[in-house]
Amino acid sequence: MYIPPQEVKNIEGQLLIFRSTLQPVEESYFIIESILAFLEYKQSNYSKVIEALLPIPEYSKAFNIAHFATRCVAIATSYRSLGKKELALKYFQKAIEIYENVNLIPHQNYCFGLALYHISEIYGELKDYDEMLKRHLLFFKYSKIWKNVDFKNRSLNGIARAYSGKKDYDASLVYFKMASQSSEKDGNLPFKSRNYHDLGMLYVKMKYYDEAYENYNKALKLRQEYQLINASITTLTSMGQLFFIQKKYDRAIELWQEALDMALPLKVNRKIYQIYKNLSTVYQEAGQFKLALVFYKKFHLLKEQVDNVDKTQVESQKIREAYSQLRQQKELIESQKIEIEKALSKQEETIKYLENFASVAAHDLKAPIRITASFAQLLKRKHKHLWDQDDTEYFDFISNNIGLLAKMIDDLLSLSRVDQNLPYPKTVDMDETLNAVLARLSAKIEESKANITIQSQLPPIIGHTSLVTQLFQNIIENAIKHRQTGLTPQISISSKLLSTTPQFCQFEIRDNGEGIETDLQPYIFELFSGGKKEDSSGIGLATCKKIVTHYGGNIWVKSKKNKQTSVFFTLPLVEHIIAN
Q: Residue 571: which pLDDT band, with cuts at 50, 70 and 90?
């Protein structure tokens, strides 16, 4: 629904006056509150929409169940605008389940259609183009039933983009042309601009760059004419990408700078940091490394701010939903069971999210580390002849810390991948495994002059060679690292069978290192504790714990300060792994 920007504030002011005459429990108050949230949405104040509409009051169901669904649509749409796809899908699906089982008036048909449209779009963002196509075809079917031209245009455009995602460009062009003819016929110029923009994106994929520019330019003129600033920023950004692909860097910079000038006053931070990233990339390609670094710093800082805000919003949302659930539980005992099931389901999703977080975060961190290392090397080569002894020490400090950070990222990746996509466990030959570990650590063993003794004929265990290798490597590497000054590391590896748990074998790795204080020993296997040592993140030992517990075993430590440390752990001897 298009509302001229200058009219939004006027409508909002009048509604606020009208709402002041109503009681919060009245149906009219509920409807006005929903409309005010819609106006906040039109001004891109998505967080305010969610704050205004959550928790959803239970009494709203008593007015009209479809009103309740409409509120869910507003919340879901705002979550989608904030990039919260899972939460958006949850509330859209909740609304659709209601709409499909009640008789709807025209306004509610519109909200039902929006829910169908947004779910289709989210599947597109998830690159599930088959599901996107399926949903948009259903949306097109409803648009004909409701005789809604706007929905017809949206569905045709969505079908075209789904075919584009499937790389069926001929079918995509057919539907884009149908959408253009439809929007031309009904005079929907804002949507027509959207269609021009999307058609430009298709031509970019097809490498028809002149046609792409022509459609982008048409879209930009319409969007600027209708003061669709946010949409204009999107088109300018895409046009800049088009010129970047053609290595016309000056023109790309010009367009991205224009988009940035429009985006900064609106504080659309997600678009701003993407433009910063684009500018950093184009300046790097153009050989202007100082400007590339300036914009990369801006990108990194702003993205970090956005991510922090997102985390806060998610936590606030969890609190609001928990409060809403508790209030409902007081009203009906039966509903308590339903809410518990929902909470368990959400908890499982959160656990999956946390399990994947380290892998995703570490992967995303690698790029800035590489860039930082590259610029540091450029600085070294360019100015080394001007350095004094202090400068050399400073640079060595920077290089060492970059290396430590890269090691931490690799450790995080190892931790996150411990139990992902593993094949069925098999017999692991411990002699071969330890030979591989010692080969990997040969440089550190030689440098420290470490003496490592291994019990002959260690029993084979059931597991995965890669994980067992990682387990032994982390512990032995730790023993070498934390050796006593002036003392040659003495490390022994042994095993014994257990009468209490005959399906497991107990291993011991003992060293004569600096030891661990008694009060720190309970923490050494916790992530980021490192036994509270300043030079240890604790990721390595946390990975060891995850590997051992994956096979149903236990891991623990016994240590005396400045004397010795023994790390004990159990691994299965039979093909029966107790899943943790």
A: very high
Q: What is the pTM of this model?
A: 0.46
Give per-residue pLDDT as tens, 73-116.
888 888 888 888 888 888 888 888 888 877 766 667 778 888 89
Q: Is residue 233 part of a domain?
A: no
Q: Are residues 182 and 59 in the same domain?
A: no
> Could you say which of 370, 389, 416 is where a domain stops?
416
Q: How many residues in the chain?
A: 580
* Alpha helices (runs of H) in 1-128, residue ranges in sequence order: 5-19, 27-42, 46-53, 59-63, 65-81, 85-99, 106-125
Dist CA 279 CA 253 (whole Å): 7
444 and 412 belong to one structural domain: no
Q: How far is CA 522 from CA 18, 311, 529, in A?
A: 62, 30, 10
Residue type, 359: S
CATH number at residue 254: 1.25.40
Segment 274-324, tens digit of pLDDT: 999 999 999 999 999 999 999 999 999 998 888 877 676 666 656 656 655
Q: What span, in angstroms and rounded, lies between the C-alpha atoms of 69 and 76?
A: 10
Same structural domain for residues 530 and 443? yes
Per-residue pLDDT tens over the stretch 457-490? 899 999 988 889 989 999 999 999 989 988 999 9
Cβ atoms of 216 and 239 within 8 Å: the answer is: yes
Q: CA-CA distances (angstroms) from residue 438 to 249, 430, 433, 442, 443?
A: 50, 12, 9, 6, 9
Residue 579 lies in a domain: no
Which residues span the domain enclosing 197? Answer: 127-227
* Burial letters 3-29, b for 16+ CB under 10 A, else e: eeeeeeeeebeeeeeebeeeeeeeeeb
Domain count, the chain: 5
Q: Is the peptide bond before 55 cis (omega within 30 degrees of 0)?
A: yes
Show which of 101, 123, 145 is a domain's final residue: 123
The answer on pLDDT for 442 being more than 70 is: yes
- Report strand pairing: 504-511 vs 555-560: unpaired
DSSP reduced 3-state for 534: coil
Annotate 134-169 with b (16+ C-beta within 10 A) or e (fewer).
ebbeebbebbeebebbbbbbbbbbbbbbbbbbeeeb
Are 162 and 122 spatial neighbours (Cβ–Cβ below 8 Å)? Answer: no
